[in-house]
Amino acid sequence: MQAELRGARDDRLRRVAVAAAAFAICAVPSIPDELRAALTEVQAGTFDSSTRARVEAVAEELDERYLDMHDDEGHPESYDPAWPAAWYSARAAAALRAAYLEDTLQAACEAVYEALYATTSVGSALEYELLTSVVASTR
């Protein structure tokens, strides 16, 4: 993916990052409202540092939540059925967090990567095709 994005203008790379984050946030139903609000801001082109800090904190909290649920991996009897939703939420939050990265190539690549993992339950072939078309539009 990085090879396809390399050489694209910064504004296009930023659009890819925001589009991937939006795709993930909108596809995952269990996203906190504050992340939806932050997405609205970045879609409007506002990358406020206090909102970024909150996105990073929420993304970290969601990562911790799914990791805590996954700690008993070797014990199938302790499987938490809420784990998949926690995983998808954490990945969607990571996609939004990536959209804030200064390096636009890194932002685009990480946001697309996380968005793909955030939406694998929805139909990964379709998500891959949609995100690939977003990347292709940067040329």
The SS-based structural class is mainly alpha
Helix content: over 70%
Strand tally is: 0
Shape: globular
| Number of structural units classed as domains | 1
**Span of the ends, CA to CA:** 13 Å
Mean pLDDT, rounded to whole units?
85
Order of helices and strands: HHHHHHH
Main β sheet profile = none
From the alpha-carbon coordinates, what is the Rg to the nearest angstrom?
15 Å
Low-confidence stretches: none
Number of helices: 7
- In terms of DSSP E residues, the strand content is under 5%
Describe the 3D structure.
- It contains seven helices and no strands.
- The longest helix has 22 residues, at 49-70.
- It is mostly helical.
- It has one domain (2-136).
Summarize the structure.
The protein has 139 residues and is mainly alpha-helical. The protein has one domain.
